[in-house]
């Protein structure tokens, strides 16, 4: 607050602008920290919280007006709350330490927290007992002052319920649009796979069988060879069809679960791969499919683009979400705009209101973390 009071007048002469920007950044950092602490204290969310209110607070990016407003409010409210706790705390320390320094005073210690003069060693030695009521008072006031300060921080920084709901509605709307786009892209992919692969092979089977039918009476040997070609084409069409089905919902997920399915992925990965499975509970089928394909795409990226020599995959659930992490020791520098498949992972995960975090500095390593909510 002091920095702000100096920075604003200095902006008039042009030298306070850099200072003002630093003060605003400091206010934002301080208010975000205060909101996080208040959220933990009041039960508005914490590690593993699942409420919409906690999620909205966790994803909050406070407007500058709220940050500056909280700085002004906290300058008064924080001082009062601190004083309520500070006074009995000083009294406790004073009573407990009286035997250490009372004799150094030129006159008897009057007044003092014990409310009587300390003018002899016997009196000084029993004075620490006077700290007991102050300790009780401190135990009574401290949590209430902290709760008051926390509720005030939430009210100022997090806004009212309508603001939180509006932010959540906007987020859900954006997530729904991404889900629809991901669904449309998946339908287009399936249509292309069926049209370019399976359909062409089935048409070839039909043509070969037609030719074989015409040759059956005149040249049975050639007709038999054409039937064999048609049979091979039909087998290839069935293989293509199975691949398309697996790309929609891999049967291995039903048979072996997510851990078994990812084990199969890591076994097929051309780069040496290690799989670590933490506490892993079964998630909804759609969530497991999204996690499976996210890991599959991340392993494909590592094999094709990273130049990695080792890849590590971690799977776990925490009761609220399914976490999948793929790390490699490659060259790094992965970016969504370079066609690395990260955009597809992010879009697939966002359809479930999940989050994707990519860390890939130049020189590596690259880490892709995916979090998918397990409860809807």
UniProtKB/TrEMBL annotation:
Class in the EC hierarchy, top level: transferase
Keywords: ATP-binding, Kinase, Membrane, Nucleotide-binding, Phosphoprotein, Transferase, Transmembrane, Transmembrane helix, Two-component regulatory system
Domain (Histidine kinase/HSP90-like ATPase): residue spans on this chain: 286-376
Statement: the UniProt record of this protein carries the keyword Kinase: yes
One of the Pfam families matching this protein, by short name: HisKA_3
Highest taxon in the source lineage: Bacteria
Catalyzed reactions per annotation: ATP + protein L-histidine = ADP + protein N-phospho-L-histidine
An MF annotation (GO) of this entry: kinase activity
Transmembrane regions: 6-24, 68-101, 121-142
Region (Disordered): 35-58
Enzyme Commission (EC) number: 2.7.13.3
Keyword Phosphoprotein: yes
Entry protein name: histidine kinase
